[in-house]
């Protein structure tokens, strides 16, 4: 409330316990290195899974827990049909990494706001 009411600037170290940042790096160079490592880690994941996680997190922001759980069940059932699940399972069993194809371009989604 203090930050909302005062509108004051605050440091990254102050933002960390509020969950406004996920980590604090000691230098700009360390921050850039950590950001690139995280981007590479995310890029190596299934694009369908990443898109699903993003969609689900956005959905839960504006819906009840029950609605969000129903949405997650429906989304997950659909995603289990993707080829990426089989590719991921095979890679896991063979202890190999899997290279996922990029998603096709998605049409823009407008906000209800």
What would you say this structure looks like, in words?
There is one protein chain. This protein is mainly alpha-helical and 113 residues long. Helix content is 59%, strand content 0%. The radius of gyration is 19 Å and the shape is extended. The model has no long low-confidence stretch (mean pLDDT 87).
Report the strand count. 0
Q: What would you report as the Rg, rounded to the nearest angstrom? A: 19 Å
Shape: extended
Distinct helical segment count: 6
Which structural class do the helices and strands define? mainly alpha
Poorly predicted ranges: none
Determine the mean pLDDT.
Answer: 87
Give the helices and strands as they follow along the chain: HHHHHH
How much of the sequence lies in strands comes to under 5%
Distance between the termini: 24 Å
Largest sheet: none
Helix percentage:
55-70%
Please describe the topology of this protein:
Layout: H1 2-6, H2 12-15, H3 28-43, H4 47-61, H5 65-79, H6 83-94
Helix pairs in contact: 4-5
Quick rundown:
With about 110 residues, the protein is mostly helical. Helices cover about 60% and strands about 0% of the residues. The mean pLDDT is about 85.
Characteristic terms for this protein:
extended, mainly alpha, 6 helices
